[in-house]
Design a protein that fits this description.
InterPro entries: Aldolase_TIM, TIM_sf, Triosephosphate_isomerase. It is found in: Cytoplasm. The chain is α/β, with parallel strands linked by helices and 255 residues long. It is built from eleven helices and eight strands. α1 runs parallel beside α3 and α7 runs parallel beside α8.
Length: 255
């Protein structure tokens, strides 16, 4: 299983460091991590990445960024490039989140360019996809498959590949009191896994009001979870790791 968290901008640098120290202590002492049944990642704000790598890396927690520039260098004031992210120890990068689309005007072309930038640099894109309105599983799966294909098209045309994580986050479930219904998540997750297996390969994790108690209800349709505010208390991570053990996950499930 792959379990990750994005802190967005909810945490200060100090609080992020505190959370990571607690998570690292939990990871070091937990059988789910020691056995390889779970891989963990965390995505802090840019300035915290170097400290996060030093704290979480030794505990086996990968560190990623919440955004990436489309270009590798040049006159792009304020941007943070893939090569610099890799240089400071990031190994993953979030791309295509609904909030980037809604608040910063990122469209399919921008998401595709950032996905290419991540793969070009050897970073693993955590590609966020999801339907905007609640719909039938079939129509939702069709919409999300199209988002994946669009995001990967430039990289495919350039012959650039690499590890891919797809974070299925139905927009209507982001920030909601409850996650999407488990049966919906399982059906969409299974469809996306089949789609990736027939093409570039990759893992599918669920995000969108995800937290403790959800994984046992969706585990047969996804490869993990992408956590948010329901894991702001680091104790939630230990609960979720316990759930992984109860499911009987193995290192093969962590891929």
């Amino acid at each position: 299983m792959l379990i990750g968290i994005s802190f967005k901008t909810w945490f200060s640098h100090a609080r992020t460091v505190e959370w990571l120290r607690a998570a690292a202590a939990t990871a070091r002492g937990h059988d789910a991590v020691a056995s390889g049944a779970v891989r963990l990642f965390a995505m802090p704000q840019f300035p915290t990445i170097p400290a996060a790598v030093g704290i979480a890396g030794p505990a086996g927690i990968a560190i990623g960024a919440q955004d990436i520039a489309e270009h590798d260098d040049g006159p792009w004031t304020g941007e943070v490039t893939g090569p610099v992210l890799a240089e400071v120890g990031a190994t993953m990068v979030e791309v295509g989140h609904a909030e980037r689309r809604a608040h910063f005007g990122e469209n399919d072309d921008v998401v595709a360019a950032k996905t290419l930038a991540a793969l070009r640099t050897g970073l693993t894109p955590v590609l966020c996809v999801g339907e905007t309105e609640r719909d039938t599983p079939q129509r939702a799966a069709d919409a999300v498959r199209a988002q994946i294909d669009s995001a990967l098209a430039p990289a495919g045309a350039a012959g650039i590949g690499g590890r891919l994580v797809v974070a299925y986050e139905p927009v209507w479930a982001i920030g909601a009191p409850q996650p999407a219904p488990p049966e919906h998540v399982r059906e969409i997750g299974s469809a996306l896994r089949a789609h990736l297996a027939a093409g570039p390969g990759g893992e599918v994790i669920y995000g969108g009001s995800a937290g403790p108690g959800l994984l046992p209800r969706i585990a047969d349709g996804v490869d993990g979870m992408f956590l948010g505010r329901f894991a702001h208390d680091p104790a939630a991570l230990g609960v979720i790791l316990d759930e992984v053990l109860a499911l009987g996950a193995t290192p093969a499930d962590a891929r």
